[in-house]
Amino acid sequence: MPVDPSFLPETIRVALLAGQGTHGLMTSTTHLSFLADRFYLDIPGLQKQVFSVGDIVIDIGCFFLVYKTMRNRDNIAIEVKGSEV
């Protein structure tokens, strides 16, 4: 996944240029650059992370999938309990 170098600290930029890590630096020839990792999150106690808008959309979609699934199971359980009485 390409990473926008302007959002990275210098030490990480140097490590990526040396070939370390799973990401590559975004250049002017990168296709679909709007999908690149552009956000850098550094919370003390957690690992430093880079992520993209697409990652956020996927996370929201997974949340709604689990939410809807759990909500449907609750409705089914209520209907089953109601029919037994």
UniProtKB/TrEMBL annotation:
Transmembrane segments: 49-67
InterPro entries recorded: DUF5317
Domain of life, source organism: Bacteria
Record's keyword terms, sorted: Membrane, Transmembrane, Transmembrane helix
Pfam families per record: DUF5317
UniProt name for this protein: Uncharacterized protein
Organism whose genome encodes this protein: Desulfosporosinus metallidurans
